[in-house]
Each structure stands twice: as C-alpha cells, then as structure tokens.
Amino acid sequence: MSAMFVLGLTGSIGMGKSTVAGMFRDLGVPVHDADAEVHRLYGEGGAAVAPVAALHPEAVVDGAVDRRILSSKVVGDETAMRRLETVVHPLVQRAETAFLAEAFSARSGLAILEIPLLLETGADLRCDAVAVVSAPAEVQKARVLARPEMNEAKFMKILSRQIGDGEKRRRAHFVIDTGAALPVTAKQVEDVVLALAGRPGSAYARQMGDGHGAAA
Ligand SMILES: CC(C)(COP(=O)(O)OP(=O)(O)OC[C@H]1O[C@@H](n2cnc3c(N)ncnc32)[C@H](O)[C@@H]1O)[C@@H](O)C(=O)NCCC(=O)NCCS
Ligand SMILES: Nc1ncnc2c1ncn2[C@@H]1O[C@H](COP(=O)(O)OP(=O)(O)OP(=O)(O)O)[C@@H](O)[C@H]1O
C-alpha cells in the first residue's frame, strides 16, 4: 500500500464541517474531529479539566468543563482565548497523532483531520492537502444565528478570530460547496474521495520521522 494521504478539512463557523465530515465517514474514510476531541477533553476525567480549572475555576462544574461558562470567559478576550488554546491545542494534537497511527495501521489510504482552526494554527502543515467547506455569508449567518446560545455579537467575535472565507478558499486544494442542497454537497465529497484515491501522501511520514508511515 502506498503512504496514507492526510486531508485537512476546515471552514468557518457554521459552514458545514461536521455535516461534510459525516459524508466522508459514510464513504468509509476515517475522520478525526478536533471539536469532538475538545468535548472529550472537557468531559469528566478529561485531560483538559485540571488545566482549564487552573485558568478559570468557575468554569469547571462537577468535574467537567461547562462550555457556556468558559465561553463567557474567553470569547471576546484575546489574552484569555490564547491562554486557553495553549492548554487545549497540544492535547488535541496528541489525540490526532494517535488517530493517524490507527488509520495507518488499518491501511487506510486516506485520513481526514477536521480542524476548525486548521489554517489559523498552521495545522495545514501536517496535511497533504486542504479541503474547505464554504457557503454564501448570508447562509452561514442564518445557520449560526439559529443555534441556541448564539447571538450576532458572539458570532462576530468568533468570526473575527477566524481567517476569512475568501482567503480560506484561496488556500484550499478543494472547495466543497455547502450552500446548495445536501445531495449536491455529498456528490462533491465523493468527487474528492475519487480524486485522492491511490494518491500517496507524505505528511504522515514526515510527522513520524523518516522510515515510518511511508510505503507499507
Ligand atoms: C470557546 C469555547 C468554550 C466555546 O464553546 P462552544 O461550545 O460555545 O462553541 P464551539 O466549541 O462549538 O465553537 C463555536 C465556533 O467557534 C469556533 N471556535 C472555537 N474555538 C475557537 C477559537 N479558539 N478561535 C476561533 N474560533 C473558535 C469553532 O470553530 C466554532 O465554529 C470552545 O470553543 C473552546 O474551548 N475553544 C478553545 C479550544 C479550541 O481552540 N477549539 C477549536 C479547535 S480545536
Ligand atoms: N449542503 C449542505 N452542506 C452542509 N451543511 C448543510 C447543507 N445544507 C444545509 N446544511 C446544514 O447546515 C448546518 C451546518 O452545520 P455544521 O455543524 O455541519 O457546521 P460546522 O462548520 O461544523 O459548524 P461549527 O464551526 O460551529 O462547528 C447543519 O445544520 C446542516 O444540516
């Protein structure tokens, strides 16, 4: 088998990352969801609970991080958000490495890293190519504002910390349109999988050091 290809999947808030990740999974492609990992890390017994408690004791309730409280402490406070990221991102990356090793052992030809801040954090350097999900701004806004606990001010604050959709699209190898009907998007996901079938990647081998992760 040739070396596993690592595809980074990203997009701004509400653009449809999770939905598209589900479509890749339906095609049998393993996906690591950084957001879901953060949820695990914040849950009871999660590795981020103690370090978050050290930063924001009031945000830990019954042994787990309360995201609503944590959100009120960090969204809009750049210093607090950065401090939180310094704690959380290395833990997410540790889980990601374990996921890639497992996908590689399972002889998967393609593995996906779904990371909201892929381009912002330089995680794209750990990928062979980048896919961006994108929809018109008004569609994005309507989707996000329909969520509970969301309002326009919070939406704007989150957006301001993310690279704009236009730049994301420019930096993408694949743009997946999530503004249309779901089956249209699903077809584009299929096309990406077909385009990458049999394409050897080098990102995983690079991460693991010479001699690992290459042809097996
Ligand atoms: C701030 C927190 C508590 C808000 O939690 P909440 O459940 O309300 O929102 P959720 O996590 O679903 O995020 C909503 C949107 O904000 C975006 N977002 C999340 N963290 C960040 C961040 N650090 N910078 C910019 N955007 C962010 C997400 O991509 C998503 O589009 C939470 O997002 C968090 O702990 N973030 C820090 C960890 C992180 O960077 N996660 C993102 C990728 S690993
Ligand atoms: N063609 C489409 N592709 C993707 N999502 C779509 C499409 N049409 C409608 N939607 C809806 O848009 C919403 C996208 O939300 P989703 O949680 O997938 O976005 P996200 O980018 O993961 O969000 P976040 O950045 O907040 O984590 C879902 O409710 C989904 O059903």
From TrEMBL:
CDD domains: DPCK. Pathway: Cofactor biosynthesis; coenzyme A biosynthesis; CoA from (R)-pantothenate: step 5/5. One of its GO terms (cellular component) is cytoplasm. It is found in: Cytoplasm. Its EC number is 2.7.1.24. ATP binds at residues 14-19. GO terms for molecular function: ATP binding; dephospho-CoA kinase activity. It holds the Pfam family CoaE. Keywords: ATP-binding, Coenzyme A biosynthesis, Cytoplasm, Kinase, Nucleotide-binding, Transferase. This is Dephospho-CoA kinase.
